[in-house]
Amino acid sequence: MKPPIHILSLLLLVAGCGDSDAASVPQEWVWDLPDTVPEPRVPEDNPMTVAKVELGRFLFYDTQLSANETQSCGSCHLQELAFTDGLAQAEGSTGQIHPRSSMSIANSGYAASLTWANAAVVRLENQALVPMFGEDPVELGMANMEDELLRRMRDDENYPAMFAAAFPDKMEPVNLDSITKAIAAFQRQVTSFGSKVDRWQQGDRTALTESEQRGMALFFGGTNAAGVEDAFECFHCHGGFLFSQSSDDAGQVFDQKFFMNNGLYNLDSDGSYPALNEGLFETTGELVDKGRFKPPSLRNIAVTEPYMHDGSIKTLEEVLDHYARGGRLIESGPNAGDGKDNPNPNKSALLNGFVMTEQEKQDLLAFLGALTDETLLDNPAYSDPFAK
Amino acid sequence: MKKLTILGVALALGSLGCDSSSGGAGSQAVTIQFAAKVSTDDFVCGDTYDNLGANDTSMQVSDFRFYVHDLELKNADGDYVAVAIDTEDTVWQLENVVLLDFEDGCTDLGNEPMNTVVTGTVPEGTYDGLRFKMGVPFEINHENPATAPPPMNLTSMQWNWQGGYKFLRIDSGTFSMTDWRMHLGSTGCDGDPVSGGTTACGSPNRVDVDLAAFDPAADTVVADFAALVDGSDLDVNQPETPVGCMAGPMDGDCGPLFENLGLAFGESPAVTQSFFSIE
User: How large is the ipTM?
Assistant: First the structure.
């Protein structure tokens, strides 16, 4: 008995599609990516659709997602700053200062783990719950307000139809799961592979200047003026299509998330970092995890200052100086300590310091600047639909 | 209101079941009573209690919720048998997990309905001993909270930064960063970007509770806040850590609290918990 019913319902479905206008047919999602880049992993229970991404774009930029309706996701992830906020440390909707600096959401669909130092959060859908409902620190401040959030969505003049279009199989499409799935789908398609370096990698030998090419060679293990092979060791943590080794994609079969200590702090014999910013240690409690953070993608890095998990280095030039020294010296104050010195038990073995001429520094800066994808910064598909 | 109504039905069913042995051939209904106390006083949401911790601190307490699972009663042969949790007509019980909720919505992060019982069935017999775990079992803890049914769908009990739930939530004050709070959940969890799931947690932080000589017909399981904070310097907070304890391994303020829960913390090994007792 069952198969005929099944077939019948399928026939009805097909007939329904043919009879209705084209707008009601879910449009198949097509990734617009260069050949040099894999597709991101899409969870089976959250397939991409045009309607879902559009809903996600509205939700991402909607201040109704904060308790006091002052902030949206986009308040800390500004498109013109490659979806960062220019602050050393983010500020939540109630004014609480976050210990960490806002990360770019561009290419976040490829992150092996999300945020700076959290091995547990590996899906954008789950990550969205943290800023919405987290209590320490408060970001959007919606804890215990899930019913109010859904009421706002249902009372909105646009959302009910948008949720229905994005989740056509759901009897009640306005629910918390739809919200996290739509925001995740939006973020997953905020890809950024339109930099000059991408054009070079696709074969355009005019894409990079001489200086940018020299910087690229040094970045990828070239010998420096002092005669040291792979003096700068950049690509060991910041390699691959993402310019972060901590990457994932649709074809990846291995867990590639990883975390490194880059010698920013060294407060005591355990290599401690300042409180509230101790990296992976905050969740594992393992001393070896003190100061270990995810190497972020370097794409668009020139427009996302200040740098590091706590925004404690203002410019890219100073970042290069930090790596040249092989760890940061803080001479006085509560964070005094030498991140370079032994014993710094957790510092990455790749952070050995190097000699860098002024020309080499300028070449590396030029290369890092060539990782900026100008189209990301004003692509209307990623823009704020509420902007006046 | 809907939750309250459903709770009323569940309570009525529970007490009916206790009075008769009509739970089916060879089985009987059982109701395990829980209470939240602060020393000898009943917990009342929003009340202030004195003489807490190592320094006789006074503190207003405004939230008191925890999950329990894997409840077992000891039969006449001395064997522990699982309590089969009722899952019909209840918003408090799911599979083998139950949310016990002693706050009445006295702050914005709470809600009016409360739950003080676990209802289920056990094989017919007499019982004198109870053991259970405080927390959420691994299999449920790391499911998608955005689609979870009650009682796993309360965002105030979700612990999203570790991809799980707060097993225990006790707050003071009205939810400001200067108010003392205790949030316990699994930490050190590891996710797999390929499968999307959580593979394991370094510190599961589930509390083993073993209450010998517990008579389900007469006794109540008491969760005592004063016992939880015994020995804790409540009026002092380790600088630059959350006020109270968010289960962070770097937060020394968690030490005495974890010890009273019987959990290992830092160099301190697991011991027997003293938060729960029989009354």
Answer: 0.84
pLDDT at A281 over 60: yes
Q: Tens digit of pLDDT for each residue in A19-66?
A: 344 445 567 899 999 999 999 999 999 999 999 999 999 999 999 999
Q: Which domains does chain A have, with CATH numbers?
A: 17-192 (1.10.760.10)
Q: What angle do helix axes A316-325 and A358-369 make, rounded to 10 degrees?
A: 130
CA–CA separation, A235 and B254 (whole Å): 40
Strand partners, B190: B200
A265 at the B interface (CB within 8 A)? no
Pairing of β B97-101 and β B80-82: unpaired
**CB atoms closer than 10 angstroms to residue A343:** 10
Domain limits for position B231: 34-85+95-117+125-278
pLDDT digits (tens, 9 = 90+) for A318-338: 999 999 999 999 999 999 999
| CB proximity A135 to B under 8 Å | yes
Is B149 among the domain residues? yes
Here the tokens at position A299 are 């794409």
> Does B184 fall in a domain?
yes
Report how many helices (DSSP H) and strands (DSSP E) chain A contains, helices first: 14, 2
The beta strand positions in chain A, using DSSP E, are 329-330, 337-338
The total of structural domains in chain B comes to 1
- Taking contacts as CB-CB distances below 8 angstroms, the residues of chain B near A42 are none
pLDDT at A341: 82
pTM summary value: 0.89
Instruction: Identify which of B109, B161, B193 has the shortest CB distance to residue A122.
Output: B193
Give the integer Cα–Cα distance in Å for B28 and B11. Answer: 16
**Average pLDDT value for residue range A177-198:** 98
Residue B78 lies in a domain: yes
Tokens matching residue A350 = 């790749």
B33 touches chain A (CB under 8 A): no
Specify if B23 maps to a domain. no
Q: What's the CA angle centered on A386, arms A305 and A33, to 5 degrees?
A: 60
Whether A139 contacts chain B with CB within 8 A: no
Distance between CA A135 and CA B185 in Å, rounded? 14
- Rounded Cα distance between A188 and B224, Å, is 46
